[in-house]
Design brief:
236 residues; mainly beta; Fumarylacetoacetate hydrolase, domain 2; six-stranded mixed sheet; five-stranded mixed sheet; 4 helices; 13% helix
Length: 236
């Protein structure tokens, strides 16, 4: 059994706030999401930059994670919301300074995630040289499918990512196109942070990111891993 247990967020009853993972026989709290930046060359190009020579990470808090059927609240102060489909790895054990060859052994399961970004808030923060947590870590900014045990998943580099907005395919790519592969991301992250059970590693997005409008229906899929559908709430 691979499920994500959910409850209604008391501040927004339309948002399904996930509380814990059940992956096989493991029950894990939902932790922080460690997110790799510009980890596909085509995405780095569409953003007007290049991929970093070594992995670079930013964070989303546990409150960012929502599950199937959620209505994601529009981020306050923003007028431009973008989607980014990603492969997510759920950490199953406490891990520190993991070697690349052992990295996959700390993963309990895989899922598909969508990194929602308030692009205008991010651009404003970058212009001022300020952190951009508000643009990436707002409530509901990490829709995540039910995880699948890694033993039941295909090799990570064979997984295909796809995302549809209102039935139109907007993103499609293969995880084998990552600049830094999943084992390297895990090893690098574990040298910066102690990884804990329930932490989530987002691995970057292929090209095709784009804007969302209030009421949009978003469906994301990682082949033979998972799928999630959610809607976008009204602007506030």
């Amino acid at each position: 059994m691979n499920v994500m247990e959910s409850a209604c967020d008391s501040q927004d009853v339309t948002t399904i706030r996930c509380e814990r993972f059940v992956i096989g026989e493991r029950v894990l709290p939902i932790g922080c999401a460690l997110c790799a930046a510009k980890n596909y060359m085509d995405h780095a190009t569409e953003m007007g930059g290049t991929a970093p020579p070594s992995p670079v990470f930013f964070l989303k808090p546990p409150q960012a994670v929502v599950g199937e059927g959620a209505q994601v609240p529009w981020p306050l102060g923003s007028s431009l919301l973008h989607h980014e489909v990603e492969l997510a790895a759920i950490i199953g054990v406490t891990a520190r300074e993991v070697d690349e060859e052992d990295a996959l052994s700390v993963v309990a399961g895989l899922a598909v995630a969508v990194d929602l970004t308030a692009r205008d808030l991010q651009a404003a923060a970058r212009k001022e040289g300020l952190p951009w947590l508000a643009s990436k870590g707002f409530n509901g900014s990490c829709p995540l499918s039910r995880p699948r045990c890694i033993e039941d998943c295909p090799p990570w580099n064979e997984v295909r990512l796809e995302l549809w907005v209102n039935g139109n395919l907007t993103q499609s790519g293969c995880c084998g196109e990552m600049v830094h592969g999943l084992p390297k991301l895990i090893a690098s992250a574990s040298r910066l942070f102690t990884l804990r059970p329930g932490d989530i590693l987002l691995t970057g997005t292929p090209s095709g990111i784009g804007p969302l409008e209030p009421g949009a229906v978003v469906r994301a899929r990682a082949s033979d891993v998972g799928e999630i559908t959610f809607t976008v709430g009204p602007k506030r």
